[in-house]
Amino acid sequence: MSFSEISLASVAVLHAIYALASQHLSDLEQALYHKSRALSAIRASIAQDQSSKSLLQCIVAALCLLLCETIATPYIPQDWTTFFCVAQTAFPIVYSTDQSYKGDLALILDWMYYFNVHSRFSIRHFSRRRDDMLRCASDKLVHNVELNSLYNAQQITPTLGCSREVMMAISGVIHVVQEAELDVDNTYTAYTDKLDKLERRLKFAQQDLGPSDTDPQASRIAELYVLAARIYVHRVGRQAPTTNPILQGLVDDAFSILESLDTCERTFPLFIVSCEARTDLRKMTIFRILNATQAKFAAANVLRVRSFIERFWAQQDLDVEQEIDHATQMTAALSANGLLPIFA
C-alpha cells in the first residue's frame, strides 16, 4: 500500500495513522485534527475514485479511526459506527466471494472480520437497535469472504485473538441466536441442531500457535474465546440455568484460564466469562485482570468493559429470584447509555 503518490486515499491513511499515534501520546487536540482530516479525505476519495486500490486504503483508514475511537474514551464512542459503515460500504467493491486472499489483503480482511463479528454481538444485545443495524448484522458478505480465505484455519491469528475456525464458529453462534430472536424460518429442532453443530466445532477446534508467535498467553486467550463462546451457547442460546453441570464445567475451565493470565486485552470473551462470576473470589479474579490490563494497555478500552461488567453484576444482584433471563440482563447492561456498545 504505497504512500508515494499524493492521492486522497493515501492522505486519509496517513492522517488516520497520525490520529492513532496522537491518541496514544495523549495529544487529544492533534488526534481530533487528524481524525477530522482523515474522515474528510475518506469521503472525498470515495466520491472521486472507486478503484479497488483507493477503496482498500479507505477501508484501512476507517479501521484505524475506529481503533482510535476505542482508545479515546472510556465511554462508548459516538463515531465508531460511522467509521465501520465507511469500511462496510467500500468492502464489496474491494473483496469478492469468488476468490481467496493472502498477504496484506488477508490481514485487512481479518481486521474487518474481527470488528464485523463483534459489532453483530453488540447489535444483538442493544435494546435501541434500528432496522439498518439489523440489516447490517444480517449481511453475510464479510463472513463469506473470510470463509473462502480460510488458509491456516487452525492457526491462532494475532488480529483475531483465536483461530479463524473458532471466530467463524463464534460468528455462526451469534447469527443463529439473532435469527431465532427475529424468528427467521426457525423451528426449535432446526435451531438446536444448528447450535449443536456450532458447539461441536468449538469443542473440537484445534488452535495452533504461529511460527512467529512469541506471546506466552496467546494459546490460553484463544482457548478463552472457545470457552466464552460455548458458555454463550448454553446461557443465551439454550437458556441453561446456572446449575447446569456442563455450563458449570465450562465456567470452571474459563476461570482456571483467567487465574493463570497476567492480563487480558480481549474484552469480548472477558465480558462473557465475567457475567458468570457469582462469588466474591471470582469477582476478585476479574478485578485483578482488569486492573493489570488497564495498567499495561489502553485504559479506555478496559474501563469501558469494566462498566459493562459492573452493570451486569448489579442486574444480577437485583434479580434475587433469578426471574430475568441471562440474555435480557446482558442486553440491559450493554444498552445503559443509549449508544451501540463496542468490543475491541
Q: What would you say this structure looks like, in words?
A:
InterPro entries: Fun_TF. Its main location: nucleus. The protein is built from 15 helices and 2 strands. By secondary structure, the chain is mainly alpha-helical. It has a two-stranded antiparallel ribbon. β1 (156-157) and β2 (162-163) form a beta hairpin. The longest helix has 22 residues, at 103-124.
Show the helix and strand layout:
Blueprint: H1 8-24, H2 28-48, H3 52-72, H4 80-94, H5 103-124, H6 131-138, H7 141-147, E1 156-157, E2 162-163, H8 164-182, H9 188-203, H10 218-237, H11 245-260, H12 267-274, H13 280-296, H14 299-318, H15 326-334
Antiparallel strand pairs: 1-2
Helix pairs in contact: 1-2, 1-3, 2-3, 3-4, 5-6, 5-7, 5-8, 8-9, 8-10, 9-10, 10-11, 10-12, 12-14, 13-14, 14-15
Subcellular location: Nucleus
Pfam families: Fungal_trans_2 (PF11951)
Organism: Clohesyomyces aquaticus
Largest sheet: 2 strands, antiparallel
Distance between the termini: 24 Å
Overall average pLDDT = 91
| Cα-atom radius of gyration | 20 Å
The helix fraction, in percent, is 55-70%
Structural class: mainly alpha
- Proportion of residues in extended strands: under 5%
In terms of quaternary structure, what is this?
single chain
Spatial strand arrangement across the major sheet:
1-2
Total number of distinct structural domains: 2
H/E order of the elements? HHHHHHHEEHHHHHHHH
Unreliable spans: none
Count of DSSP H/I helices? 15
Tell me the overall shape.
globular
- The count of strands amounts to 2
